[in-house]
Design a protein that fits this description.
This protein is an alpha/beta fold. The chain has 14 helices and 15 strands.
Length: 396
């Protein structure tokens, strides 16, 4: 792949706009900036802040070199509409990468070509659909699909996103599949560094003996995560295995639902947001990851720790569900507490099955890495900059 150059033959300038910076994206942008520099690409990151609702998740990150702007929010019908200012100094960027969300009002001037100077390319980074939509054929999703073909390039989360884009008529040669990932290497290091003292501390907090069956959930706490189903399945497991414990890691608007459940279940523990070595310790004492609701990037946490993930077929999953191969590196069952509990109990009874799934999960952690995602991103940026802008394209 040749070096990327701008319209004048110098270093290309690329801007990625994020309405807020998530903590798990910090490592991506740091590595991506360094990789872009090696290819004569000057990477800029523009981000704003979380909405009051999003702030409850406590998942914000910081990057010193990013351009931070002040978002404006308007809540309409339970949705936070966002206007994100854009720095005037970056108006002449060769490529602007936007997040595909209907509610980002500041995207529309780019998509309608009201902001783009001659030769500037505009790209989307996203899922291709709102995979959590309760009305996939409704007005909001039709509106989103109408804009799919209004960009010059797509940075797709996974191959499943590519398939959606192709079905909408977007040219395959203008799609880069990133294979969305997190900093697996860092988490693997954290897992390896967990000592006996940290594990014993977790066991003591859970009131569990070494070797006891311990399930873990880690992620944001909101309705799509099906926390009621998580508790119901855990009740069934505990009825059969009184030594079972469940650790719930994370925070969010549905936290009270878990704390209320834990008040009458001494074996259920809400441990809040955990990061780094503290988070790794909880994964080390667990033997399975229970996630009845929407699965996203945390499937890679499960893989890194060698924890079989158990989820449900009809949940509104993120595109990363494509990484989970049923009966090989995890399990996908009916949205039924009994089915979830039985899947977990089967692992407890069958040590060979448990070990086989654990081994496959660890292997796949090496397939979906942050370094691979960075390589895919840089390659896509170069390919985009070497192709002419795509103007006048309309949905098929």
């Amino acid at each position: 792949m040749g070096r990327a150059v701008n319209r004048s033959g110098g270093r290309a300038r690329v801007v990625i706009a994020q309405h807020r910076l998530l903590h798990y994206r910090v490592a991506l942008f740091e590595r991506l900036r360094a990789a872009c520099a090696e290819h004569r690409v000057e990477l800029h990151l523009v981000h704003g802040q979380a909405s009051p609702y999003e702030a409850l998740k406590r998942d914000t990150g910081q990057i010193a070199w990013a351009d931070t702007v002040r978002n404006r929010f308007l809540r309409v019908g339970g949705v936070d509409l966002v206007w994100q200012p854009y720095p005037a100094a970056l108006r002449d960027a060769d490529l602007v990468v936007l997040i595909q969300e209907n509610r980002l009002l500041s995207n529309y001037p780019w998509l309608l070509r009201l902001r783009t100077p001659p030769g500037q390319r505009v790209a989307f980074w996203g899922h291709g659909r709102n995979l959590q939509s309760t009305a996939p054929t409704g007005l909001r999703e039709r509106w989103k699909r109408w804009f799919v073909n209004r960009v010059d390039w797509w940075f797709a989360y996974t191959d499943s996103t590519r398939s959606l884009l192709r079905s909408d008529g977007f040219p395959d040669e203008r799609i880069s599949v990133l294979n969305n990932a997190i900093d697996n290497d860092r988490f693997v290091q954290d897992l390896a560094a967990v000592g006996a003292a940290s594990m014993n501390s977790c066991l003591e907090r859970l009131g569990a003996e070494p070797g006891a069956p311990i399930g873990v959930y880690c992620g944001s706490l909101y309705p799509d995560k099906r926390l009621d189903l998580l508790v119901a399945a855990a009740d069934l497991v505990h009825a059969e295995r009184p030594d079972f414990r469940l650790a719930v890691i994370g925070d969010g608007p549905s936290r009270s639902q878990l704390t209320e459940a834990a008040a009458t279940r001494p074996w259920l523990h809400c441990v809040g947001v955990q990061r780094g070595a503290d988070k790794a310790a909880w994964f080390r004492v667990a033997n399975a990851y229970l996630s009845p609701g929407a699965v996203g990037l945390h499937v890679l946490d499960a893989f890194c720790a060698g924890l079989p993930m158990i989820t449900t077929r009809d949940a509104r999953h993120g595109p990363e569900i494509a990484y989970l191969e049923p009966e090989r590196n995890g399990f996908v069952v009916d949205a039924d507490a009994r089915a979830i509990a039985d899947s977990y109990l089967a692992l407890l009874r069958d040590a060979a099955l448990h070990q086989r799934v654990r081994t496959a999960a660890v292997q796949d952690a090496g397939r979906y890495t942050l370094d691979a995602m960075v390589d895919n991103f840089v390659t896509g940026i170069e390919r985009c900059l070497q192709m002419p802008p795509m103007r006048g394209v309309r949905p098929a």
